[in-house]
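Bit of a strange request maybe. I'm writing a small parser for structure token strings and I need a real example to test against, not something I typed by hand. Could someone generate the tokens for this chain?
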Amino acid sequence: MTEDPVQKYRDILKTAVIMQEAETYYLLLGIENQTDIHYAMPVRNMIYDALQYGRQVTDTAARHRKNRKSAKQQEKDHGDDYTKAEYLSGFYKDDVLKPVITLVIHFGTDPWDAPLSLHEMMNIQYENLLRFVQDYRIHLIDPARLTEEDLEKFSSSLREVMEYIKYSKDKKKLLEILKDNPRMMLDRKAAVVIKTITNTPIEIPEETEVIDVCKAVEDMLKESREQGIEKKRWQHSLRGVKSQKYYDSIEECRGCLRKVSSIFLCLPPKILISNVTFLKKVMFR
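Reply from user aminoacidic:
Good idea to test on real output. This should exercise your parser:
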């Protein structure tokens, strides 16, 4: 199956199998990774899903044409297998579509304040009118909205990533969850996501596959304290310098170096979260 020219812009699209008691369901799961809030997300997701459904209809019609052609070449009577309406639509009465679910995962530190549905994007309060306008809601996982119970539903390192992002601006709470937490032994990709999204300047050696985030943050804090002490000593030694202009020029130089090093540390690598594991009770919002 050739790739759709617009569908390829999805972040992730995979086939999923859901088993419920004796029933098995096949569906397409699309995932949109958002580091920034997108204020037109309902429309964007609606387009992606519509294109995918359209693609399924097109592929089904192509398969029927191929079967009819094959039957004709074999001189078989194929006239009673479909009706005129089925022939014209290309989609037969017994054909079915695979459900398409798009999940938006927000990796930003600020709470998602964008519309969650198509109706929320419209400035219409007249309910009798809105009930004729098809709505489209997005399924959102946002760190700021997740409760402790919600976080426990994740069985992959996404749990720790979401938890770290959720409390990245609450240093006291962040230190609490990092203290002696065995789950904070993360794979390198998860640690890179945390570092990039939250601008936490932790060290991630190239050759290391598993990162102890707790220790990395502790080392970072220790180094920051030592740098603070060293800065005070350095400033004290400059008190004997008579030229205030010279002192200001040194400060300016050190400020530039800090900005350059900060930009270098926070350069965002191309992050691909290739798989998100869902429990049966995962929350869609």
